[in-house]
């Protein structure tokens, strides 16, 4: 279960097992421990319910990637809350199942430390903001709930509210 502490920090459990293999360059993809397609679809279904989002193709990823773009009038977050334009998160195709999203720096630190995410290679090299991470695809419903929590944090970050 994911909870928020009194000081507003996200309290993530440790992700079980080893990290999945990922590509170290663009396109940044998850190569092992691929999320089952039904969990990917359940996650996407949840993602489409976020307030003020426009669904569409990603401006920065492969053609089978589905992206969330925030309506411009609601896009009041900092520049590092977006991948491109008002795109704040996207879900890769069924052969991958991971997500790229922007998260507040303190949330990035915890998601990476607890094994849920890794920095995008271009962020590691300093070419993109350190808020851009790959969140690994969910392997079960418990992981789906945690990842859904991270997507909602990304959405709030893009709207200008970075609290967990």
TrEMBL record:
<dbReference type="InterPro" id="IPR040841">
    <property type="entry name" value="Luciferase_dom"/>
</dbReference>
<feature type="region of interest" description="Disordered">
    <location>
        <begin position="1"/>
        <end position="35"/>
    </location>
</feature>
<dbReference type="Pfam" id="PF17648">
    <property type="entry name" value="Luciferase"/>
</dbReference>
<feature type="compositionally biased region" description="Basic and acidic residues">
    <location>
        <begin position="8"/>
        <end position="27"/>
    </location>
</feature>
<dbReference type="InterPro" id="IPR048273">
    <property type="entry name" value="Luciferase"/>
</dbReference>
<protein>
    <recommendedName>
        <fullName>Luciferase domain-containing protein</fullName>
    </recommendedName>
</protein>
<feature type="domain" description="Luciferase">
    <location>
        <begin position="85"/>
        <end position="154"/>
    </location>
</feature>
